[in-house]
Amino acid sequence: MASRLNPYLTFTGEARQAMEFYQQVFGGELNLNSYGDFGQQDSPMADKIMHGMLETPGGFTLMGADNPEGEQPGEHRYSVSLSGDDESELRGYWEKLSEGGQVSVPLEKQMWGDVFGMCTDRFGVPWMVNISERSG
Fold first, then answer.
1. Residue 121 · residue 104 · CB < 8 Å
2. What is the pLDDT of residue 117?
3. 13 is in which domain, residue-wise?
4. Mean of pLDDT over the chain
5. Residue 11 sits in a domain of what CATH number?
6. For 62-96, what is each residue's pLDDT tens digit?
7. Distances (CA, A) of 19 to 9, 30, 57, 61
């Protein structure tokens, strides 16, 4: 899979409605995963969106999620997402993006099985890097 670069929007409880709206605007296939889908069924966030992805016929990809309860989105309500399965390429991007910036989530294996990290580069732009395992 080629690496992908796309916006990742952060919401405060309205991710499902927003992502469904964007699907109506742009068309395409929408996949939504709640916090409950990832083992947090008893949490107040169980029905909130942990990860949503819209892929459109025009080639757009838009991702979004609800911030965990009690956490504010911060200065930005977006991040730039880099994802794919080329670990060395994506780790190289991570190293360069995080150098001189601030790491908020170290690049490491997560509960959904991928390697993931979040940082803000030295120019104040928030980034998310997700490395999935190569299939096949």
1. no
2. 97
3. 4-131
4. 90
5. 3.10.180.10
6. 999 998 766 665 666 889 999 999 999 999 999 99
7. 9, 8, 16, 11
User: How far is 48 from 130, CA to CA, in rounded Å?
Assistant: 20
Q: What is the pTM assigned to this prediction? A: 0.78
The candidate with the shortest Cα–Cα distance to 126, out of 66, 78, 67, is: 78
Q: What 3-state DSSP class applies to 43?
A: coil
DSSP string, 62-96: EEEEEPPTT----S-SEEEEEEES-HHHHHHHHHH
Q: How many domains does the chain have?
A: 1
Could you report the per-residue pLDDT of 11-26, keeping only the tens digit for each?
989 999 999 999 999 9
Nearest 5°: the CA angle 3, 20, 40 is: 75
CA distance 74 to 72: 5
CA gap 103, 21 in Å, rounded: 32
Residue 136 inside a domain? The answer is: no
Q: Report the C-alpha gap between 110 and 129 in whole angstroms.
A: 12
Strand partners, 86: none
In a domain, 10, yes or no: yes
Q: Which residues pair with 102 in a beta bridge?
A: 120
